[in-house]
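Re-running Oligopeptide transport system permease protein to confirm reproducibility after the cluster update. Everything else is unchanged from the original entry.
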Amino acid sequence: MSELNTAVQEPKAHPRRKQKEKKPNSLWSDAWYDLRRNKVFLVGTAIAILLILMAIMPGVFAPQNPLACNLVDARQGISSEHWFGIDNQGCDTFSRVIHGARISILVGLLTSVVTGLVGGVLGLIAGFYGRWVDVILSRLAEIFFAIPSILGALLLLSAVGRDAAGVWTVVLALAILAWPMVLRIMRAAVITAKSQDYVTAARALGASPFRISVRHILPNAVAPVIVVCTMNLGVFIAGEAALSFLGVGIQSPNISWGLMIADARNRFLMAPEPLIFPAIFLSITVLSFVMIGDAVRDALDPKLR
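Result of re-run:
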């Protein structure tokens, strides 16, 4: 008998490929993906970054001293040495506009942070604990919410006096009347998140109230607060300019766009540049932060997906 030598072909041993389970994208990763492709967000962010750099390093953009004034040269027009002309006090308008960005943007950022922290923490407490805690905080917020922001800040700064008016005084005056809006938004988001299954599961596993509120509820409820605080940046910058224009905000020798507009209004027909250019920079700054806020709102709102 002839033996048949059959070649037994063994199957090739393929190395096991580690298939990584694709994790579902979080809200923040999806939002960042959308923001990177949003032209409105990119344009607004580019303008905001330029303005922030201008506020941090004003000497790089305007090497002239904004406080070096000469009344003999007052109200001169645009020239090669003075791009924005000279104001009523004989100061270079371009240098003062660049240096004025620091206080205006600083007030807007600080007020947004203060209102976000105060309103966010109180809204988290009110929404999580409910009952009498919610009633007290909600009624307190309604008292402040009923007062118009600019009018209330005007009264507060008038009571404090011009001598005590400064950056933190203006920030506190605006924040005292703006935190109730953040509280109401945070409270509503916390109440919605508190009824979700993952919160029930955390309670069943014995998690403490602090851990549940900070670890599970806060990350899922903070998105609306971030949107509101971002959009309010421009509102607070405009509010600071309005208070300085009315004479109760930032005082000389500090430089603010609102203060510059107030100083130039009486000689507008003779020298319009000292009023026009601060107003243009103020409008661009407010518009840039509003653009960023709108884009962030669209990216973080799941209903718009």
